[in-house]
């Protein structure tokens, strides 16, 4: 099935391998970009894929859908544009992007593999530690998922509960943050945590669960009633 397969975008002439970005200077002219979306396993083209072309520096955006032969086209009449960003989404949800320098006379040349966008894998090595002598606050640290699912991790969701398996959503941090300080803990309580990672496709499975107990005594700053 198409949903199980990888797609390939070819923009006019084809490089031999991989994702390629070229840099060059060409005479001002009208730019015409042709894109063919096809299945890399079968070689068959796919109609109905949506491609978005963003030209720079003008910011002109053209959106087109591949026809029955799997081909779509974008024309940009701004003569001083130098690059184009191409983003295509197949009918099965496979996606991919590329940036290329515009070649007014011969067309751009990019080959890019499209793959199914999925949620990240689990957050790794979640750890929780209290302040000195086990009093609050609690510091959480973790490592990024082994796989981001084909799209950057946008956010980490932190879940907290006061007994095992009772966690609910508690806090959100950005995708470039790998630590969180929970300063809303109470002496004499135990807290359980797990973290998930989210990208454009969705959220990962929960990380391993960790827990920490907040002491009633210790450094003299926390006492239980």
Could you walk me through the main structural features you see in this protein, from its secondary elements to its overall organization?
The protein is 0% helix and 45% strand. It is built from no helices and 16 strands. The protein has strands at residues 7-11, 31-39, 50-56, 61-65, 71-76, 83-89, 94-101, 110-116, 124-130, 138-143, 155-161, 168-174, 179-182, 190-199, 202-203, 210-213. It starts with 6 loop residues before the first strand and ends in a 12-residue tail after the last strand. Residues 1-28 have low confidence and may be disordered.
Strand order of the largest sheet: 4-3-6-7-8-1-2-5
Backbone structural class: mainly beta
Strand content: 35-45%
CATH-assigned fold name of the largest domain: Immunoglobulin-like
Low-confidence stretches: 1-28
Q: Output the CATH homologous superfamily of the largest domain.
A: Immunoglobulins
Number of helices: 0
In total, the number of strands is 16
Helicity range of the residues? under 10%
Number of domains: 2
Which key features would you list for this structure?
2 domains; Immunoglobulin-like; 225 residues; 5-stranded antiparallel sheet; 8-stranded antiparallel sheet; 16 strands; mainly beta
List the topology elements.
Elements: E1 7-11, E2 31-39, E3 50-56, E4 61-65, E5 71-76, E6 83-89, E7 94-101, E8 110-116, E9 124-130, E10 138-143, E11 155-161, E12 168-174, E13 179-182, E14 190-199, E15 202-203, E16 210-213
Antiparallel strand pairs: 1-2, 1-8, 2-5, 3-4, 3-6, 6-7, 7-8, 9-10, 10-13, 11-12, 11-14, 14-15, 14-16
């Amino acid at each position: 099935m198409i949903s199980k397969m990888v797609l390939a975008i070819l923009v006019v002439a084809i490089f031999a391998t991989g994702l390629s970005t070229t840099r060059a200077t060409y005479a001002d002219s009208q730019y015409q970009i042709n894109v063919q979306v096809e299945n890399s396993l079968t070689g068959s083209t796919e109609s109905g894929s949506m491609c978005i072309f963003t030209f720079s520096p003008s910011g002109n955006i053209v959106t087109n859908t591949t026809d029955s032969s799997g081909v779509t086209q974008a024309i940009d009449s701004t003569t001083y544009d130098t690059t184009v960003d191409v983003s295509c989404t197949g009918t099965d949800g496979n996606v991919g992007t590329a940036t290329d320098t515009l070649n007014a006379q011969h067309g751009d040349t990019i080959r890019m593999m499209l793959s199914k966008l999925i949620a990240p894998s689990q957050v790794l090595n979640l750890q929780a530690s209290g302040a000195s002598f086990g009093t609050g606050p609690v510091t959480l640290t973790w490592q990024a998922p082994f796989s981001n699912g084909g799209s950057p991790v946008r956010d980490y969701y932190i879940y907290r509960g006061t007994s095992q398996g009772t966690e609910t959503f508690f806090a959100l941090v950005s995708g470039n943050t790998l630590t969180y300080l929970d300063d809303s803990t109470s002496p004499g309580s135990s807290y359980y945590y797990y973290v998930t990672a989210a990208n454009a496709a969705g959220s990962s499975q929960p990380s391993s669960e960790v827990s920490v107990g907040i002491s009633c005594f210790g450094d003299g700053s926390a006492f239980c009633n």
